[in-house]
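Go through this one:
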Amino acid sequence: SKVRILPPPPSTKSILSAFFIFLSTFEYEIISTLKEYGFDNVSEGTMYPLLLRMEKSRFLTATIKDSGVGEKRKYYSLTEEGINELNNFIKNWNELKMNIDNIISSV
């Protein structure tokens, strides 16, 4: 059977985009959610620069809001461009998964 060349693995940026589609959230909550799903090596030191790059790329917007418990927080949400990036990620991820499943099932 024919084996297709696999697309590159999803970027962290694309994975994060998936979290923003449903909510507007702040950095600590993003890190906590990622850790709940097994991304144990995520830290503020890697998260903030990534969020900043995504914001500069216009995939995210940031809004400063009162937290209700102290300092104001920067809440992030997807822009229309970010939603398009997410849709591309989902398409590529599904293709990658299908190709890997095909390889595994042929072994």
